[in-house]
Amino acid sequence: MPEIRQDVTTKEWVIFAKERAKRPEDFKRGVNRELSSPYVDGCPFCAGNEAMTISEVYRQPSPHGMGGVDWGLRVVPNLFPALVDKGDLARIAEGNLFHRLDGVGQHEVVIETPLHNRFIHEMGDDETTAIIDAYRARFTELRDDDRFKVILIFKNHGKAAGTSLEHPHSQIIATPVVPAHIRNKYEIATAYFDDTERCIYCNVVQEEIRLEKRIVLLTDAFVAFHPFASRAPFETWIAPLKHRSSFGRITDEEAADFAAVLRIVLRKMYVGLGDPDFNYVIHTAPLTDEDKHYYLWHMQILPRLTTPAGFELGSGMSINTVLPEETAEFMRGVQIS
Amino acid sequence: MPEIRQDVTTKEWVIFAKERAKRPEDFKRGVNRELSSPYVDGCPFCAGNEAMTISEVYRQPSPHGMGGVDWGLRVVPNLFPALVDKGDLARIAEGNLFHRLDGVGQHEVVIETPLHNRFIHEMGDDETTAIIDAYRARFTELRDDDRFKVILIFKNHGKAAGTSLEHPHSQIIATPVVPAHIRNKYEIATAYFDDTERCIYCNVVQEEIRLEKRIVLLTDAFVAFHPFASRAPFETWIAPLKHRSSFGRITDEEAADFAAVLRIVLRKMYVGLGDPDFNYVIHTAPLTDEDKHYYLWHMQILPRLTTPAGFELGSGMSINTVLPEETAEFMRGVQIS
Fold it and tell me: What is the ipTM, given to two decimal places?
């Protein structure tokens, strides 16, 4: 018998189609993708090719003093930006019904390492922490620009996740509008707070910890779990145990803890699923609402193992073929030593 | 300069990233996909293999009396259904915060033709009309089951659109819940009606016709256009000129007109883009609201030429790389003789 579950944070329904059911291990790739070499000629993000990127906005030193390379991480503007740092926020009418505005914003690339083939799942905690530090530094800088309403930090890993560049990198986009999808979620959280004086995300986290069965990893400061209404197999949320609406307010200690949990989760995914394509996104309150208590920043990781089709596009409902209780149990058992 | 446009029917924003801009013709596949033969051994939908499907719920006779085949179109239950015709609608609590219900619903497959390689873009108007007639007949039947709230009719064409079966088919799913995504759109349309006493979709259609530049095809009864805030290249809407909330209320004459427009649009897409993968979905009011005036049924066709990545997943905003004015002009020029 299939079942339908609701995500309380979005009110979206997810169908768990047991007639199409798969076992967690059925999602593993037969062969891991081929490893590239540490340097690839013509890659704009590789050490030695720094001239292929422009006007670096952030840099960290090389953690291990690697031969001749004087940086460990760089942040540069995206050469093909979705949004740009100029233009006007005024709405421009087209006819009587439509409106648009200039594509004002920022679009940056976090080059996570000088090495073409060093992904987070292979890094040490110091390197992963450097990435989280960079996210926070750029978030803090962009937050002060009052043209921006939302800052999205995300990673596309692999072709099915929409990336064309292999070199380990993530992206930061600051938008001049609050996306309707984010506004909807924020309004659900606000209404819940009005009713209960509690953050709905904190309640979800506490309830998942109490129920135990969907937890992948629990530390003193963070929890990684497969949510009750996972939209896709192995969807994973990493959330702080301490309430904080904005990712920008993360402390040094929390950043290091978060980095360690992220590394372990991605490592388990790499080993258990055979280097799947995935996206991750840091969800955080809109910038004007950072000091309100209605939201909990967290990361959502979505492996791209299945293809959303017409039903999903038309209804907004997802069809999942495996229960998060089963995938979480599987992930807990994956050894990563 | 990129620009950001809002879809007034969903309030979602779409970024048009001109720094990544492509010309419409750049989306064409180099080579069309290989054509299969009319019969494929082991295909459950091919003529002669009827025993591989169960309990047919609808059938149309063969339009041309093809040698020995006594049907032109069949509707059968999906062998791997997302939802099933049994179970209970009661919500079941899990812990203090989560809830679920049985996966009650219907999931049917419309086998559009006995021939494995006869797609809509190759059909005559009588065959396409037979498909629309089948959609309406099944919609009308399922509508009378008061367990169901929404009926989704959709097609997945090609691997990037999420299908594994090549034989021309579409699907019908009746759900026991109103998806939040559909409820949101319906509430936007209702608020607009409260303000203006007009259907927002009819206003969009009239405005697109008045502005002309995004129209692909205009007949006495239907219009096909690329919407102002197209989420992806070549997104196409087909809408009736006469206001009707529910697809289920389409007349015989309208069904034939709609079929003809659909055939032409898919034919232009096949020729102009080289048989792209695509999804289409018929959007219609929830079943309890069929007699209200807030909605206009219409079809949305979404070619799967690009891959939504982390930004899209996290924000709900889309990034498009070509303006609908340009793609509509390109499509108008595609000759389909």
Answer: 0.96
